[in-house]
Specification:
heterodimer; A: alpha+beta; Rossmann fold; six-stranded mixed beta sheet; 34% strand; elongated; B: mainly alpha; MetI-like fold; globular; nucleotide-binding (chain A); EC 3.6.3.20 (chain A); ABC_transpr_MalK/UgpC-like (chain A); ABC_transpr_MalK-like (chain A)
Chain lengths: 367, 319
């Protein structure tokens, strides 16, 4: 049972505040991913939990006890670094045994635990090798083994697969997930890669400039982003964001994007849900899969022109010009033959997000 | 196309090999000169042109280690027959080994000077490298207020020729009783080498990723344990390279050893040239002393050669 809680954590590097009043509660066995651009404070947060950075305010609690005054060694936490940080002068066996030696366990116990971890990670045949003789993936496995062997209260991982190539990264991602399900320890994982975050996390914590933006399950942050930053950071291809104005029509609401001649049709309920938000301050967000494209004219579809077609194998991403605005749509591959083709598009009200343009906050409209 | 070597490249390679051979010969020539003179009979040591082929003998070494005086009369056949083989070599050179009243062989000053050199050089190297390593670690890993100024200050101690301060040092040493003591020279050489050691070690420490220690800290070790178990083994290359340079400086230092010591703590460098023999200069004895004096550095460097080669390419290879 390990719970980690951050209460009002503040951290400064000189005059720059890198963590601003961070509050977060992590449950036992939960896999949390801290996601954000580089420099957003996610690694500093992780290092503060590990005890490698001091904090300038707030509390870090492990199982309800404040640990911010404890040394890293006394927090019973394991960490996997981006550079793996395997000790080059020690064999794989010695690397994995190293944390156990600090606990003054007997040689036989250490041996048994090292071999058991090596078996779990399928690195038993590498035990005699030096880290320099290992491939990137194997180094990663050894680094994870070194972290797991002590059965720590929590596992912290700082972009552990960031240094690997794309294919290996995918494999290791699955392996980390498998291990977490098997071993079930509270884990905090730092990455800037939203695909990694989506695929691994129980909950994603999105940070920007030291401020927590949103905490939620991958589905929540994808489907209901709390603000424009989250909306555009999570998801690939990126969500379309456009200035929008809403007008009332006889049977429906009309949403005009980018000063286009005519607007997209929305249910009337939109007007009441927008709760009087002035039209000029609205930003509309729609993911490419929420832009529906047809070749023939139909009710509610506006004529648009394809500008760029990006074939991505299983689907295409097409840039459509709507008024002065570009909307990216996801279509079947080859659906639009090339730039200049005239097609018809509408946006799916159920997948549309509305944000306050000034604050960037989501208005929480769900249709 | 990299595998294909053109004829121009081949001849360039050959030229490079020839150049390396020539340079090696230039560097080895004085060593050969000393080594060969150390094994020459006295009368062949100063011939012009130099004698290259000769029957090597070890009489210079016997003379180096013993106290001798000129023979006024040739030894009697009984005396000659009774003498051990090495004493006969001295007789052959027209000298005799000085013995005490009880007949014990009197040693020359060389062994004790050699010992002094070892004591002073090893201790000062250990101190300079040890303190340098700790200091460099501190500068490399922690935020030190005025770090740049402090490092410059440390370096500035090397900005004047050390011998400039010889006279004031001599007076100070005399006042505190450090003249002609091992500790006197050890402190002096440690001080000379420390700035060099700090700077060199800082370069090596900076190259060791700090994640290694952080991993150890998270793994349950204190910073001190992490330093000894992780940083020191990783810094071995740097320590070896620094130690070799510090040892060579302390081992070869001449001016201060000459000024600050005269008997008890005198090291080999000022002693060797004083052994010009009883009577005419005996270059073979000087060469023998120099030859033996070269050995510890050569052995030390040879033992650490792998580390030194790694040290020279340090930082060039992505880890």
């Amino acid at each position: 049972m390990t719970q980690i809680e951050l209460r009002g954590v503040q951290k400064y590097f000189g005059a720059v505040q890198v963590i601003k009043d961070l509050n977060l509660k992590i449950d036992d066995n939960e896999f949390i991913v801290l996601l954000g651009q580089s420099g957003c404070g996610k690694t500093t947060t992780l290092r503060a939990i590990a005890g490698l950075e001091t904090i300038d305010g707030g509390d870090i609690l492990i199982d309800g006890k404040p640990v911010q005054h404890l040394k890293a060694a006394d927090r019973d936490i394991a960490m996997v670094f981006q550079s793996f940080s395997l000790y080059p002068h020690m064999s794989v066996y010695e690397n994995i045994a190293f944390p156990l030696r600090a606990t003054r366990k007997s040689k036989a116990e250490i041996d048994q635990e090292v071999r058991s971890v090596a078996k779990t990670l399928q690195i038993s045949d590498l035990l005699a090798k030096k880290p320099s003789a290992l491939s990137g993936g194997d180094m990663q496995r050894v680094a994870i083994g070194r972290a797991l062997v002590r059965r720590p209260k929590a596992m912290l991982m700082d972009e552990p697969i960031g240094a690997l190539d794309a294919k290996l990264r995918e494999e290791m991602r699955a392996e980390i997930k498998r291990l977490h399900i098997k071993q079930g320890s509270t884990s905090i994982y730092v990455t800037h890669d939203q695909i990694e975050a989506m695929s691994l996390a129980d909950r994603i914590v999105i940070m920007h400039e030291g401020v927590l933006q949103q905490v939620g399950s991958p589905d929540e942050v994808y489907s209901h982003p709390a603000n424009l930053f989250v909306a555009q950071f999570v998801g690939s291809p990126v969500m379309n964001v456009a200035d929008a104005s809403v007008t009332e029509k006889a049977t429906a609401a009309s949403v005009t994007v980018g000063e286009a001649a005519s607007g997209f049709e929305f249910p009337r309920a939109l007007l009441s849900k927008l709760n009087g938000h002035a039209s000029g301050k609205l930003a509309l967000g729609i993911r490419p899969e929420g832009v529906i494209v047809r070749r023939e004219a139909a009710d509610g579809f506006l004529p648009v022109e394809a500008q760029i077609v990006e074939p991505l194998g299983s689907f295409d991403i097409v840039d459509l010009k709507v008024g002065s605005q570009m909307l990216r749509a996801r279509t079947k591959s080859g659906f639009i033959s090339g730039p200049g083709v005239k097609v018809f598009a509408r946006i799916d009200p159920a997948q549309t997000h509305f944000f306050d343009k000034a604050s960037g906050k989501s208005l929480g409209v769900r249709l | 196309m990299a595998a294909v070597t053109t004829s121009t490249e081949r001849s360039l390679n050959k030229l490079a090999i020839v150049l390396v051979l020539i340079i090696t010969m230039i560097f080895l020539a004085p060593i050969y000169w000393i080594a060969s003179t150390a094994f020459k009979p006295r009368n062949l040591a100063t011939t012009i042109p130099p004698t290259v082929i000769f029957q090597p003998e070890i009489s210079p070494f016997v003379k180096l280690f013993t106290k001798r005086s000129q023979l006024r009369t040739a030894p009697t056949p009984e005396q000659y027959a009774a003498a051990p083989w090495w004493e006969r070599l001295v007789f052959d050179g027209g000298e005799k080994v000085v013995r005490s009243g009880r007949g014990e062989v009197q040693w020359s000053g060389y062994p004790s000077r050699f010992m002094n050199s070892l004591i002073v050089a090893i201790t000062s190297t250990v101190l300079a490298v040890g303190m340098g390593t700790f200091t460099a670690y501190g500068f490399s890993r922690f935020k030190v207020k005025g770090e740049a100024d402090l490092l410059f200050f440390i370096l500035s101690t090397r900005m004047l020729p050390p011998v400039v301060v010889a006279i004031p040092m001599f007076l100070m040493y005399r006042a505190v009783g450090l003249n002609d003591t091992h500790w006197g020279l050890i402190i002096l050489y440690t001080a000379f080498n420390l700035s060099f050691s700090v700077w060199l070690m800082k370069g090596f420490m900076d190259e060791i990723p700090k994640e290694y220690e952080e991993a150890a800290l998270v793994d349950g070790y204190t910073r001190m344990e992490a330093f000894f178990k992780i940083v020191l083994p990783e810094a071995a290359t740097g320590i070896a390279a620094t130690a070799v340079f510090c040892f060579i400086t302390a081992w070869n230092e001449y001016a201060f050893a000459l000024i600050m010591t005269n008997r008890r703590a005198q090291t080999a460098p000022p002693f060797i040239p004083s052994q010009v023999g009883s009577g005419l200069p005996d270059w073979t004895v000087i060469a023998a002393g120099t030859f033996l004096f070269l050995l510890p550095v050569a052995i030390f460097t040879f033992l650490l050669r792998n580390h030194l080669l790694r040290g020279m390419s340090f930082g060039a290879i992505r880890k």
